[in-house]
Design goal:
By secondary structure, the protein is an alpha/beta fold. Helix 3 runs parallel beside helix 4 and helix 4 crosses helix 7. The chain is globular, with a radius of gyration of 22 Å. Bound molecules: zinc ion. Zinc ion (ZN) binds next to loops.
């Protein structure tokens, strides 16, 4: 079994930092060896004496558990096109950015079965991923068969079911359908994930805007007001309470929605929420960029006015927001986003981001908005626990998978489409200068990114059958 010693670094986990060397044997972490930084110990028991096939010098660097992005959409069908990253290009880009696990969404088409959908997504991802992956199931057609199939999905390692209060006619589920699915999920302890926006009301606002000749991308934002995210979030929380079902609000963007989540958590309800980097760093001003450039920033929920950003950072500190994922759903500006020229409602929804989540969140550490352990917690440890992957993933500890990122906290870089690795022709963060950079990424003991060089392989990544949400009693 080949061994790697990562020496000299500072190990950062959700529980703190430790000057320690990390020994990797095969696919697992074999030992975390605290260094005697006082110099008082015997020379013979310093970790440097551990023999390894390869030694990686991490002096001056952070050694983190690999990032876990629980919200990605590779090759996702949307409005007659597909998101531009394949499972191969998307997971490669993730590895460049220090993410070693994704949980993507299998998308049930109306009239199809959940298990057939799962097979289809296994077909897309199998043999193509560079890092490990799992699936959530999007339930867009609630009926007796799909309700029964939910248990079979759980047995197949897919125990989180996403539903939509938005997109009438596509993914939208009625309150009654949501209640039925929540009751079914609750019987098995599974979690329902919710896209919480009032799509019925939004569709009216969209029709009014188009009728008035308002076709620019900014109207995507203006027709999806934060109040309608707050309302839907409250309604989802109420339905989950009635069904006694764990609820996870995806891509929370608005302070109104955060207030609803905080209130539910204060009463002890099993309600959790994630936000995404775009809601922390971008705003409605980006959607209003001229010459159709705003289309690059069209996603749902939409980017909000900047005052929402402070609430979200605060929510991350107070744990009312437990996770940061990307909702990575890239569509090229040319030919894809351009489908919506002259009609903002036809712009494919999604922003590329799987590569930059760890880096962007680290800017919160630099700015004093997040502690170093909290960075690791929201980007790796909590996602692992929330979606049944811990302690195999999400921690640097003996016995865990050797998914490890060596991070240089002093390096600087400029984000750009010219240098990123996502298969998309623009960057939502073009020209942004940031501090910190991934140096090395290991996936199950294999070096995927090695000091600026890609050494990974499509097919290295394996499917992760996940357990239940570990925050439930
Ligand atoms: Zn999404």
């Amino acid at each position: 079994m080949s061994t790697i010693l990562i020496s000299g670094g500072t190990v950062v986990t959700a529980s703190g930092t430790l000057d320690a060397d990390v020994l990797v044997a095969g696919e697992k972490i074999a030992a975390v060896l605290a260094r005697d930084v006082t110099g008082a110990g015997e020379a013979g028991d310093t970790p440097a004496a551990v023999a390894a096939d390869r030694v990686i010098d991490a002096t001056g660097k952070y050694v983190l558990p690999g990032g876990i992005d629980v919200h990605t959409h590779m090759e996702m069908p949307f409005g007659g096109t597909f998101s531009a990253d394949t499972f191969e290009t998307g997971t490669r880009a993730a590895a460049w950015g220090g993410t070693t696990t994704i949980v993507d969404f299998a998308v049930q088409a109306k009239g199809s079965s959940l298990l057939a959908t799962l097979d289809k997504w296994h077909g897309k991802a199998g043999g193509n991923c560079v890092i490990d992956y799992g699936f959530h199931m999007i339930v867009s057609d609630v009926n007796d068969m799909t309700l029964k199939e939910m248990d079979a999905c759980i047995a197949a390692g897919v125990n989180s079911f996403k539903m939509f209060m938005a997109y009438p006619g596509v993914f939208y589920a009625t309150d009654g359908e949501i209640l039925l699915a929540m009751q079914q999920a609750a019987r098995s302890g599974a979690t329902v994930m919710m896209h919480a926006e009032n799509g019925i009301a939004i569709d009216q606002l969209v029709a009014q805007a188009l009728a008035a000749g308002h076709t620019d991308p900014v109207y995507h934002g203006l027709t999806r007001p934060p109040e309608l995210e707050g309302e839907a979030t409250s309604r989802a929380i109420t339905l989950a309470k009635v069904a006694d079902c764990p609820l996870y609000i995806v891509h929370l963007s608005a302070s109104q929605a955060l207030a609803a989540v905080a209130q539910a958590r204060d009463t002890g309800q099993n309600v959790f929420a994630e936000t995404c980097p775009q809601y922390l760093f971008l705003s409605l001003e980006d959607l209003a960029r001229p010459d159709f450039e705003g289309a690059k920033f069209v996603a749902s929920p939409p980017l909000r006015t900047k005052d929402h950003q402070d609430s979200l950072w605060r929510g991350l500190r107070t744990n009312d927001l437990s996770v940061v994922s990307t909702d990575h759903c890239p569509f090229c500006f040319k030919d894809q986003k351009e489908l919506g020229r002259g009609d903002f409602s036809k712009i494919p929804n999604g922003i590329p981001g799987v590569e930059h989540r760890m880096d962007l969140l680290y800017q919160g550490v630099v700015a004093g908005q997040l502690s170093l352990p909290r960075w690791v917690e929201v980007a790796s440890t909590t996602p692992a626990r929330m979606f049944g992957l811990y302690p195999r993933k999400g921690v640097i500890a003996a016995g865990s998978d050797a998914d490890i990122v060596i991070y240089d906290p002093q390096a600087t870089q400029t984000l750009s489409a010219a240098s990123h690795h996502m298969n998309v022709d623009y960057s939502a963060y073009e020209g942004m200068q940031i501090t910190g950079r991934v140096v090395t990424t290991l996936s199950r003991g294999s070096v995927v990114i090695d000091d600026g060089e890609y050494l990974g392989r499509a097919g290295h990544g394996t499917f992760l059958a996940r357990g239940l949400n570990q925050y439930l009693l």
